[in-house]
Design a protein that fits this description.
The chain is α+β, with helices and mostly antiparallel strands. The protein has one domain. It is built from one helix and two strands. Strands 1-2 form a two-stranded antiparallel ribbon. A hairpin with a 6-residue loop joins strand 1 and strand 2.
């Protein structure tokens, strides 16, 4: 996830049983993760 651009998420619509997929941008994730590691040290 640190070098990825998009996270594909899949789920199941409980109303009709159809699969639902959507993309989540990972823009800024690497920087946020690095900062969280710094704060945890």
């Amino acid at each position: 996830m640190k070098i990825g651009k998009i996270l594909a998420v899949a789920s199941l619509n409980l109303a009709n049983g159809e699969p639902v997929t959507f993309n989540v941008s990972l823009n800024g994730f690497a920087a946020a993760l690095d900062r969280a590691v710094q704060l945890g040290s």
